[in-house]
Amino acid sequence: MMPELLDVRNLSVRFPVGRKGTGWGQTSYLTAVDDISFTVRKGETLAIVGESGSGKTTAALAIAQLVAGETSGEVVLDGQDIMPAGRDQLRAMRRKVQVIFQDPYSSLNPRKRAEEIVREPLDNLTNKPAREKREIVDRLFQAVGLRPEQKRLFPHQFSGGQRQRIGIARALSTQPEVIICDEPVSALDVAVQAQILNLLRRLQSEFGLTYIFISHDLGVVQHMCDSVAVMYMGKIVEHADRLALFNNPQHPYTAALLSAVPSIDPTLRDHSKRILIPGDPPDPLNLPAGCRFVSRCPVAQLHCRELVPELTGNGTEHLTACHLVDADLVSPMQAVREAE
Amino acid sequence: MEPLLKVENLRIELKTRAGVAPVIDDLSFELGQGESISFVGESGCGKSMTALAIMGLLPEGIGRVASGRILFGGEDLTAASDRRLRDIRGNEISMIFQEPMTSLNPVYTVGEQIAEVLRAHQGLGQRAAWTMAAELLDAVRIPNPGRRIDDYPFQMSGGQRQRVMIAIALACKPKILIADEPTTALDVTVQAQIFDLLRDLRAQTGTSIIMITHDMGAVAEMAERMIVMYAGRKVEEGPVADVIAHARHPYTHGLISCVPHIVANLTEEREELTEVPGIVPGLGEFGQDMCLFSARCPRVTEKCRSARPPEAMLGGSQVSACWHAEEV
Amino acid sequence: MSDETLHIPVEKARSPLAEAWEMFRQNHLAMVGLAILILIVLGAIFGPLIYPTDPYEMVWAPFSPPGQEGFLLGTDYLGRDILSQLLNGARVTLIIGLAAAFVTVAIGITVGALAGFYGGAIEEALMRFTEFFQVLPTLLFSMVIVSLFGASLPMITFAIGVVSWTAVARITRAEFLRIREMDYVMASRASGAPGMRLMFTVILPNSLPPIIVQSALMVGSAILFEAGLSFLGLTDPNIVSWGQIIGSNRQYILEAGYTVTIPGLAIFVTVLAISLVGDGLNDALNPKLRKR
């Protein structure tokens, strides 16, 4: 097993929100990411999964220090805490951590040529001579499947998939150690998604890249990841390896999420009971006291309302934040099955 | 039995800067009473345009029905007056859209918006409309409808707004409900709720549903029959189970196998996804006498580039417009 | 490796500006406006050279109507050649228009960009400052400036600029607020672009389209403003501008209407041409109207 490359400890992000309802001088905070910890092994992909408002994107962008809110916690990359940042440290961190953005239509500067966009990190973060930068850009264009004569074109002259290739080339240019892929295919047409997903996997095995892959699409995650962290309302509720999580989900939310994905496989549709979780996620400014999933959980117990469950694995690598896992009662999944 | 909706050789032309392009090119299909069908394809293939044509809502001055008929209960909608179309839109055919935030008017409460529809189209009085609106909110499973009826759209979540849209669409007990990517903007757990709701409502009211989507999984969950569109043309049609099990058009096949699906028992093995290379052609290339998919097709031959493939019936229920349909 | 670009023919690089020009060229009204504007500018530059009659000299009897005695547009109340005045006045009028628009845009962009980029207390302060200028009655305020500091050309330009920059500031701020949230700005940050670089090389160029349109229209309104001030006599009597021709002849409007009408028409046509060009720019630069 590969060594851990990235170790995120107790990461929290909170945003000050409007003064409405509070007195003068008081600020209330929306905690988008609440004390989460996870690790990523070198050359592997950690997927962070969750629905909108779960904090998955905020958590990932906080690692790259791209969120406006107040961030706390430690991000250890290759043994070094990259969180405290003076100017030079920030530059060094940006070289090592790059981002592929969700929307290829808005993440490329419309006034720059494709080659300038790909070169931008090199210009800002390295002191390489112009010729070397040109060679790097040429190689990257080839690696992501763009033709050399397209270097001079502007973003609006490319299709969505091609734009995302430019975005990928940009993220690769400084040879980063970690690439954060923020829903890299969700804005693309289905047929184009496959092209980009295959490209990402090919580049990963070619260059030994480490990805943090943000997505709400469990099918895509299942295909891309080596391990998964499931987030709900700012907390990680389950963190496990790919097979363990998809074949044997422990947390009721993970199970519900999996069962909600529409499937073309008739046997899967007939044999897996859909776990419908009612209602909507709670108001992030007014979270339940205990487990945050309690208001929608099909098997919630009384003490779930009071005690915040810890993310623990009881000695295994399969971490779950649910009281019912380690209680002697029943496993949550069993409870779910029985409830049906 | 005469189908509820019958579209015959429909051709819709769209004016663009480069000239006139057929966004819908010789499309025929039928929708039975209480049936649920799905239009599938990538964006820019004419799925939404079909829906807008049925609703009589083609962008004015830009799009027009060039030929063909849309028969609804025997009446040709392409020849109907604006007034008649408005009447049909309110009472017989309803539509819900992808983005439920922008489809609701932000300055009125949801109750007012539902009641307005009931008053305008069913001639209900103020009080009756209000009571009915609360019942509809209950029918679309909004908890505590008596209280939520006074909410403004911004006070609701995306899923609840889509429920309100469904309530408005169902207010007049339409015979057909057109759902244009109804859950694309929603989370999967909410999507599951909405699908569940639509299925139940269909069973209760017998409303036919036309769902437009790009998600094969959603089609499999929701529809009985599906029509795959490519570049303004129908490339395949058939019962959902048959098409998914054995697609007869390379594009359909590509659409199904390019998506990583959740499987029952995941293994260590991971195959490369099948790619459909390239992208949907631009409007300028629509309407040529050739297979428009040929540029992206793994089975392309000279014939594909020289003539448009006819729609051929295969195995009794599936229709495929491919010169090589037998081999697929 | 599959290549989704396979069948796309080789394209030539077309910058957004080149695209905008393409759009602009297809707009007939805007092209007419542009043509008129070019004629006027050419007239201002070369007119006095081709037609060297001194605009300040009495050349014939006062009030001789257009077309007579070889004076195409007639003479004014002092017997000065109106055509010559018009050609010479065009220079001054256009220079004031451009210079005032430049002052407007310079102040407006600076204030708006700082407010939009930094936000928070800086934004609050700058926007209150902007509002202060916005509520001042513009004509009155500029009259005060001109009468206090003298009716020299630079002072008139400055007075017009100082009272009209608020619109540009607000537009700039709004655009900055919008562009600041775009993913490509975050992408630039992820690529290590420092703050100043972000503001000037990423956000500003992308905010320019509506500012350019506004500035073009500003030239027109500055010309009108100058005419207004001149009409009220707040102008340098030794320099001939279109507004000044109207102002000095206004007492004779009933006897010799043409002395006022002709420069008035010149102003009207120029401002109209600028508006047409401004509209054309708006359509060409506004991506929402752009079709594929």
Described by strand count, sense and barrel closure, the largest sheet of chain C is:
none
| CATH H-level superfamily title of chain C | MetI-like
Helix content of chain B: 25-40%
Report strand % of chain C: under 5%
Main location (chain B): membrane
Keywords (chain B): ATP-binding, Cell membrane, Membrane, Nucleotide-binding, Transport
Protein name (chain B): ABC transporter ATP-binding protein
GO molecular function, one term (chain B): ATP hydrolysis activity
Written account of the structure:
The complex is a heterotrimer of chains A (340), B (328) and C (292). Chain A is α/β, with parallel strands linked by helices and 340 residues long. The longest helix of chain A is centred in the middle third of the chain and has 18 residues. The radius of gyration of chain A is 21 Å and the shape is globular. The two termini of chain A are 39 Å apart. By secondary structure, chain B is of the alpha/beta class. Chain B is built from twelve helices and twelve strands. In chain B, strand 9 and strand 10 form a beta hairpin. The longest helix of chain B has 18 residues. Chain B starts with a strand and ends in an 8-residue tail after the last strand. The model of chain B has no long low-confidence stretch (mean pLDDT 88). Chain C has a single domain, classed as MetI-like fold (Orthogonal Bundle), CATH 1.10.3720. In chain C, helix 3 packs antiparallel against helix 8. The two termini of chain C are 29 Å apart. Chains in contact: A-B, A-C, B-C. The interface between A and B is large, with 49 and 50 residues. Chain B: Keywords: ATP-binding, Cell membrane, Membrane, Nucleotide-binding, Transport. Chain B: This is ABC transporter ATP-binding protein. Chain B: InterPro entries: AAA+_ATPase, ABC_Ni/Peptide_Import, ABC_transporter-like_ATP-bd, ABC_transporter-like_CS, Oligopep_ABC_C, P-loop_NTPase. Chain B: Its main location: membrane.
